[in-house]
Amino acid sequence: MDIAKGDILVMKKQHPCGTDRMLVLRSGIDFKLRCVGCGREFITPRSKAEKNVKTVIKEAES
Prior knowledge:
62 residues; mainly beta
């Protein structure tokens, strides 16, 4: 899956704040994501994040 810094991931499950969109701050063996709704940042393993992604909104599209 081609995910780069600045992309927005639309996830299958919602964050506890109610939004399902995450901004990619760092990508590599794991992702550092920021919730678009509440701004919380967290790190998650790449395999887990890719499994839970519904769609990817590229940085240039938005």
